[in-house]
Amino acid sequence: MIADAHFSTPRIDRKAILDYVDQLRKKGMEGRREVAICAGIHILAVQRDPGSTQAAYSSVPLLESLIRYYVALVLELPLDSSAFHSVSDEDIETWWDRGRFRRPSGSDPLNMVHMAVLAAIQSVNRGHALFTQKSELDSLVSTQGNIREPLGHFLLNPTRKDVDIIIKEARKLFQKFCIHSRIGLSLDQIEMMIRAPDSFLRYS
Predict the structure, then answer these.
(1) Can you give the pTM of this predicted structure?
(2) How deeply is 184 buried, as exposed, middle or buried, from its count of CB atoms within 10 A (0-12, 13-18, 19+)?
């Protein structure tokens, strides 16, 4: 399962990513488990990387990827503007008070903020809230804007604190993804799956 998850992960290209999401949808539970294994390994690798700079830059895709998979695979919503057709301005105002919210239009892809707000609204409608209060959404969006976005566009010297903040948000999203997907996985279980056997460690 771990090898399958690794080799099926798409190369960096927007169309390839969307095609990959479609493939995961068709796999159902197996696709959601595949995502959880890949994301869990990524979180553990970043968490344990002793170098703050490498760990921070490795963490760049985590939050957006996790929220994208939540929207696409847990909520089973499209990743374009059509996902907002049934969302009212009142729904958005319940969760968003950080200035004017710009809805996606036409064939615009959903960005991180779009997906986070959409997930906040629709997960409550489905009876399993991704965020229990608006401050949790604010925390995710702030982390994305204040730490992740600068890392994605500039050469910086991030601190371990930056890494810890991203990992904290990623772990929360990961946990909700696994619970709401009903796939029966946790970070502890994934850690056990990739840990070397004790006999190997004793004699290596």
Answers:
(1) 0.88
(2) exposed
